Amino acid sequence: MADGEGDPGVFVATALPGDPRLLPTVTNAFLGTRAFRDILHVAGVYSGAAGDTHRADVPSQLGLRMAAPGAHTPAESFTLNTWTGTFSHTIQSPGYTATHQLYAHHSLVHLMASSITIRRLDGSTHPVTVQLRSTFVPWSQDLDLTPGPDFQGAHYIHGQTLVPEVEGGPRPTVHMLWTPIPQSLTLGGEERERCWEFLTAVAGGEEEVKRSYSAGLALVAAGSLHRSHVRAWAALRRGCSVELDGPLALRQALHGCLYYLLSAIPPRDSPGVPFHGISPGGLSNGTRGEDYWGHVFWDQDTWMFPNILLLCPEAARAILQYRLRTLEGARRNAQEQGYEGAKFPWESAATGREVCPEEIYGAQEIHVTGDVLMAFEQYYCTTRDQQLFREDGGWELVEAVAQYWCSRMVWSEEEQLYHIRGVMPPDEYHSQVDNSAYTNAVARRSLNFAADMARDLLLPVPEEWEDRARKIKVPFDEERKYHPEYDGYSPGEPVKQADVVLLGFPLMHPMSAEVRRNDLEMYEPVTDPAGPAMTWSMFAVGWLELKELQRAWSQLEKCFSNITEPFKVWVENSDGSGAVNFLTGMGGFLQVVLFGFTGFRITRSGLLFDPAFPDLITKLKVSSVSYLGNKLEVTISREEIRLEVTERSREPRAPPLEAVLGSGQRFPLWEGQSVSFPTAPGWIQRSPSRTS
């Protein structure tokens, strides 16, 4: 390993951060908590009406804390192991160690578990006792909980949320079983080592919660509960492995981001459990007043999704299915504002209705609708999964978004162009502006994709879509050769966060290298240095595109002021305000690695590459890039690109691929055979001349 000692995927501390928000989160796709916290959250379970809807607090006995009896203070350590998906707390006393492990089971998503192991270190035979401190009370401010009969030694409560998201709407039910926790545990005088396991099972129904608890007990009896979790988690980490040769801090940040983001996605073998989206602070956070109440924003679709798509397209599909399930709510949003089609909410919970507590954002920050559709487009270009669009509701969403944009535009006789007026761009320091460059560019991209998708599905293309895509205004200053953020923007006006720079990536709006540079030069100095963490990653990607490697690195370095020690938990803003465990910032950071350093760009015709590394990075290896049903191991150094198809989907059968360089050289990509060539721009595409 370059530059530093130690494992970059294991974070160890001898003391905890003073702010409990900075403790590591332990989640799977369905359940989430924070270390030493006495509540957990369940995916999709919100309480409160409209702007007050928030993740319902479910009482949790997982927040217990070990303590050694007596006057002496033993040595303690706290470890987050991103390879095993486990947080642990160890007490080291002269004659014994006691270790408490906590994890959300990756494949049994209704199960969270903790264990305490006491191990004797000397030949003594006196009993060893460890005290357990817990603030657990089986009560919630958000649920009407009722106790039920014990089940297989577990206590049982169940109940509904108190207030539905929309009037007359559903109130989700929660059923929970948990192993009672004693006040202390004792290792007998004749015992060398003993492990106690404590399970918490949570589900929407009695049958499922009992089945999950029983499955956990069976694994406990076989001595393999933690091992089964580690096996499932390690398989995911192997399949999504990203390795860098570079500074230790960068590699630690990379592993931290992968741990927290991959914890949020569904496992491959749980298709029956609907996925409920990813909020900026993840499932562990989102109680009332915290992490935007656990709502889902464009953060999911624009900042997190591209990484998940490249590494794990099955999970990316589950994210899109969340948007499909909330389409009817989005239709209602459009209708209530007097428009056609579907308008996705700025803040979404269970129904797709707008749940932002402040009206201005829901009314004006409409670019989110285009952001949602861009995720569908990236998915389609990467997978060619027509079933999602033909059979699973995807086309209805595409069509509804196109209809919304058409109804939201007005024709300007003066400019002979379509305008979108009265919006808030991604830069939230400005509102009620006309022709936000980003909003209009993403609307154009929506309409172009809708037309392309219609042709692929052999459906008629409404002339209106193509006409409006051609004629929508995207502000451009011909004199200065840059994109003003909106009509009337004056150079030098402060900007909250990445906005116009997103035209270059991820929108890939057509522009010359000169204009791309001018946009970066114009907005970099006026972007608020205290703004949200994902901003600097997009400037870094822009400078990498232009091969300005030192400038790219200086932007990427700014991200580190948002990464807290010792567990690499991100804060939204460098002063510690905003969402914590800020997955949005992590998503931006990962895009620098997966799209910036590689130059990957997802297009209809191929997966482009054009690598660029800052000086401190010498090599990047991505174990499993998914493209058109093929899994590619991609290894890039300054001198060489090496590609190998490690797996090809058999059902449906994946097409053979080839790599094409700008020089015209072609390299067939056969399964199990490595191909290498000098580092240069090119693309990966379906091979036109080979059959399966």
UniProtKB/TrEMBL annotation:
Stretches assigned to the Glycoside hydrolase family 65 central catalytic domain: 284-490
Gene Ontology terms for molecular function: protein-glucosylgalactosylhydroxylysine glucosidase activity
Gene3D superfamilies per record: 1.50.10.10, Maltose phosphorylase, domain 3
EC assignment: 3.2.1.107
Any single Pfam family the record assigns to this protein: Glyco_hydro_65m
InterPro entries, per database record: 6-hairpin_glycosidase_sf, 6hp_glycosidase-like_sf, Glyco_hydro_65_M
A Gene Ontology BP annotation from the UniProt entry: carbohydrate metabolic process
Domain of life: Eukaryota
Keywords: Glycosidase, Hydrolase
Cellular component terms (Gene Ontology): cytosol
Catalytic activity: (5R)-5-O-[alpha-D-glucosyl-(1->2)-beta-D-galactosyl]-5-hydroxy-L-lysyl-[collagen] + H2O = (5R)-5-O-(beta-D-galactosyl)-5-hydroxy-L-lysyl-[collagen] + D-glucose
SUPFAM superfamilies: Six-hairpin glycosidases
Purpose of the protein: Catalyzes the hydrolysis of glucose from the disaccharide unit linked to hydroxylysine residues of collagen and collagen-like proteins.
Family per record: Belongs to the glycosyl hydrolase 65 family.
Protein name per Swiss-Prot or TrEMBL: Protein-glucosylgalactosylhydroxylysine glucosidase
Organism, scientific name: Leptocoma aspasia
